[in-house]
Amino acid sequence: MFKATTNSSNRQNLKFLADEKNYFWCTYWIIISKDINEIVGGIMIKGTPNDNGEVVIGYYTLFEHQGNDFMTEAIRYSKNWLLNQVNVIYVIVDKEKDNIASHRILEKIGTDMYKETEELFFWGFSTSKP
Question: Left (φ > 0), alpha (ψ -120 to 50) or beta: where does 92 sit?
Fold first, then answer.
């Protein structure tokens, strides 16, 4: 249903220059629908796993492609792939409290909301969950 290509932002390029061997952990994945051959969204890996084995990702779906399950599939594949990487035990997603559509995606794929701040909910997957 989709394919991904990598890219990196300027801030992430700076991280890459400082630590080439960890470039992967500062990448931005463009999600392209194979069916319509269009960019439908993106996923960001926000840095190397911390000492607890946590890696944080972010994502977005372009407005005209929301509600078509593109991101549900992309997040499911991404979290499974990330959880099979060395030193990754948890995949964390932080989303604004008013982003109801993203909350539904995360609930649909079995994510647990485990923390909240004034503005954000924090969701997590672990290697112990199917």
Answer: beta
What one-character DSSP code corresponds to residue 85?
A: S
Average pLDDT over residues 78-96: 92
pTM for the full predicted model: 0.78
Residues 74 and 41 sit within 8 Å (Cβ to Cβ)? yes
Dihedral of the CA atoms 68, 72, 77, 79 (nearest 10)? 160
Name the token pair of 114.
Answer: 């485990």
Cβ partners under 8 Å of residue 71, min gap 6: 31, 40, 41, 59, 61, 105
CB count in 10 Å sphere of residue 90: 21
